[in-house]
Structure formats: C-alpha cells, structure tokens
Amino acid sequence: KMYPNPVQNQLIIKAEQIQNTEIEIYSIWGQLVKSFQFDGSVINVSELNSGLYIVKQKSDAVVLGTFVRMK
To answer: What is the 3-state secondary structure (H, E, C) of the chain?
Structure first.
C-alpha cells in the first residue's frame, strides 16, 4: 500500500515484505530517477518533478505500484 497518492513530498509504503531491500523509482518513460535502501520509513520524493512514477523492488523487479508527484 502506497499513500498519499498524489504525493507532494513524502510517500509512505506499507509492506513488511519489502523492508531492508533496495527500491527503485522510474519515470513513466522508464528512466531510473531514484534508487535507495528502503528501511520501512517515509520516502522523500520532493526532488522529483511532477509526473507519474513507478516503484519497483530491485531484487526481483516486482512493481510495487505507481504514484503521481505533484508540486
């Protein structure tokens, strides 16, 4: 579960199975825009431009969801 959506600055992901794993955020065009170790906390997306993004778990390329970033 990801919320809020749309998001302005902080995205929350609630999923126990993805804690302590690497997460990647891609633009809708497939460009990797952020990669980080997810520790189960809030994700700061304030540096991203407005748009639609895809969140993936790097280890097995599972798509966790999408979100809209609005400034």
So the answer is: CEECCCECCEEEECCHHHCCEEEEEEECCCCEEEEEEECCCCEECCCCCCEEEEEEECCCCEEEEEEEECC
Chain segment 50-70, per-residue pLDDT in tens: 999 999 988 887 888 999 999
Cα 26 from chain centroid (whole Å): 8
CB 58 within 8 A of CB 23: yes
Contact of 9 with 48, CB cutoff 8 Å: no
Q: What percent of the chain has pLDDT over 70?
A: 100
Query: Other C-beta atoms within 10 Å of 44: how many?
Result: 12
Phi, psi (deg, nearest 5) at residue 37: -80, 120
Q: Fill in the amino acid letter for 16.
A: E
